[in-house]
Amino acid sequence: MALNKSMHPRNRYKDKPPDFAYLASKYPDFQQHVHTSLTGRPIVNFKEPEAVRALTCTLLKEDFGLTIEIPLERLIPTVPLRLNYIHWVEDLIDGQKQPRRGIDIGTGASCIYPLLGATMNGWYFLATEVDDICFAYAKKNVEQNNLSDLVKVVKVPQKTLLMDALKEETEMIYDFCMCNPPFFANQLEAKGVNSRNSRRPPPSSVNTGGVTEIMAEGGELEFVKRIIHDSLQLKKRLRWYSCMLGKKCSLAPLKEELRKQGVPKVTHTEFCQGRTMRWALAWSFYDDVAVPSPPSKKRKLEKAQKPLAFTLPEAGVKELQASAGSCSSSVDSITALIEKTLTELRVLHKRVPCGQQEKSLLLTAVENTWIHGRQKRREQTRQLRELPRAPPGIGTSVQTGAGSVSTQNQPISTVSSKEWSSEAVTTAGGQEVEELPGNAGDEDVDKSSSLCAEPGRKIDQKTPADATTSDNGRPGTPSGNEHFLFKCLLNVIPEGRDVGIEMHWVEGQNKDLMNQLRTYLRNTLLKSVGKV
């Protein structure tokens, strides 16, 4: 699911994602990484480090007037994500344009936080770095942008965080510190072998970064605990301590650690961009600081309850009715077609009580049969093309279970170019990245891939006739199906002369699966009237 609408309100990319076509026409170094999809949209392959670097450098040049260099073997930051963090720090210190002093722990080769903070707000930064290559590039990037009077890059020993960095500035009071800590504890975790849920799709972008940038002993949890330990000694030398987290599961234990240590002011937030989520934690020993409210649970609950929906226009509804030769209502006709499609997909469904003019179906998906439809058709076509072809005018005999069937000059079915095309999905900052077909499309997802049943788990396949209703008249679980991908309620509703279809989440493994099914149903209905 695309998360751009949940970006920080001041993020310039929230409602205006980068225009790839325009940027490609203006910057030749970026143009070579922009391709045109079969639907005519400019796309970037985020699996290519060179493309990611080109986009980052281009956005910094176009939107902030910054010229930077980043080696491919070091972390390549995404601009929208970094902007989210900068804007949240603005909220913490309550003043975007006032002169402020901050510390960037592990600034990286790009030195992106100090460069953005200095350029946008005139902030002074002490930027620390332990890696020789990152240190050299960071200094060069500061100098070539004429920001040496605002950004001081210092080389510090390994495992140094705040204490050693502030030894020489014993009297200086800083307004904040920022940190993008190493997320992983070891190589296996960095590759997702023992840290990534098996049901989650693979990342949609390449993972770049040096060892010190992406890995630390104990991962991000222990790294941030070390910052907390330093803060307990420094206390009011900084008004706000903050860090960004790559795992939501790290947030609770860190907040508990701060509670145990008696830290008076603690807050957190979420950074949303493209198909990526990050979390941030901040704490202060000052009593007079204003504490920004964390994300509203009520707002997230309302967002989670919002159904996935689409509308069939009046003209399409009439055409579907005419092609089916049906005299029934538009809602009945659309419902029958949806039921036919669900049966073909082997998605369990049954009608449940609803309003007089509406139709409602309880869906239980036990296997993902809709995501690879085009790949299967391609494979079938390929196999047909590889069959030996008889000379013109000469029939062939195909052996079947019922005997021999004669064929003569029968055409081999083909697949349209559209079915062969890749689709683009939204990623960081609203950009598009070309991925394999079958993705759910925008609104992301998270991003963005085919999700199937948990590997190794055996799923019973039942027919719609196996669906049952509980004794109290409420929808029950289909008999014998202890494992399922998801359940949802599908409503077919008259909307004037149009017909609306809504899908309400009930329970299951992942809501992206329901989004994928919604896209499949929508495309199937629209194709039936020649709209797709």
Topology of helices and strands:
Layout: H1 20-26, H2 28-31, E1 34-36, E2 42-44, H3 49-64, H4 79-93, E3 101-105, H5 112-121, E4 124-129, H6 132-144, E5 151-155, E6 174-179, H7 187-190, H8 211-214, H9 219-234, E7 238-245, H10 251-260, E8 265-273, E9 276-284, H11 297-305, E10 308-312, H12 314-324, H13 330-345, E11 348-351, E12 359-365, H14 373-386, E13 396-400, E14 403-407, H15 417-420, E15 423-426, E16 432-435, E17 486-495, E18 498-508, H16 511-528
Parallel strand pairs: 3-4, 3-6, 4-5, 6-7
Antiparallel strand pairs: 1-2, 7-9, 8-9, 10-18, 11-12, 12-17, 13-14, 15-16, 17-18
Helix pairs in contact: 4-5, 9-10
Looking at this protein, list some descriptive labels.
532 residues; mRNA m(6)A methyltransferase activity; TATA-Binding Protein; alpha+beta; U6 snRNA (adenine-(43)-N(6))-methyltransferase activity; METTL16/RlmF; five-stranded antiparallel beta sheet; single chain; elongated; Rossmann fold; S-adenosyl-L-methionine
Give the total of beta strands: 18
- Amount of helix: 25-40%
Mean pLDDT: 76
Please give the CATH class of the largest domain.
Alpha Beta
What are the segments in which pLDDT stays under 50 over at least 5 consecutive residues? 184-196, 209-215, 393-481
CATH architecture of the largest domain: 3-Layer(aba) Sandwich
Q: Strand content of the residues, in percent?
A: 15-25%
Please give the largest β-sheet. 7 strands, mixed
Q: Specify the overall morphology.
A: elongated
Query: Strand order of the main beta sheet, please?
Result: 5-4-3-6-7-9-8
